[in-house]
Input
Amino acid sequence: MANVRGCNLPDDLLYDVENHTWFSEVGDGTVKLGMTAIATALAGELVAFTPKKVGRKVRAGKSCATVESGKWVGPAKSMAAGEVMEINTDLVENPSLANDDPYANWMVVLSPEDWDSVKGELTLGSEVTAPYEAKMDADGFAGCDA
Output
């Protein structure tokens, strides 16, 4: 597992570093999408998680959910377009679960459109350290333990 400035980034995931999200292929053609440890550290303790409803379409680069903390409200963006197949109701009921473990507490499951091209634009977990170091430098983020 990569660890960048105290932030864990599992090797078996694919990352959209710019939007602080991860993807995991489920095996049935769908993908799970969640926030990285960096996203939850930047946001602080989450107080609300409002995903798009099952059956709704997500456009590439647009929001699949709205996330709210004490200091931030904003979109959780998905690099992949597709249809929401499932939402994490545990996260809706208790948003701070994502602060405890952002990798076990995914946001939505998507049936992605054109997954092969999107997948090629994501960063492999085994190669995510350098891109995240650069992103954290650019954003002035000291790390998850800071």
Summary: The longest helix spans residues 129-139. The first strand starts at residue 2 and ends at 4. Residues 2-121 form a domain with the OB fold (Dihydrolipoamide Acetyltransferase, E2P) fold (CATH 2.40.50.100). The CA atoms of residues 91 and 97 lie 6 Å apart.
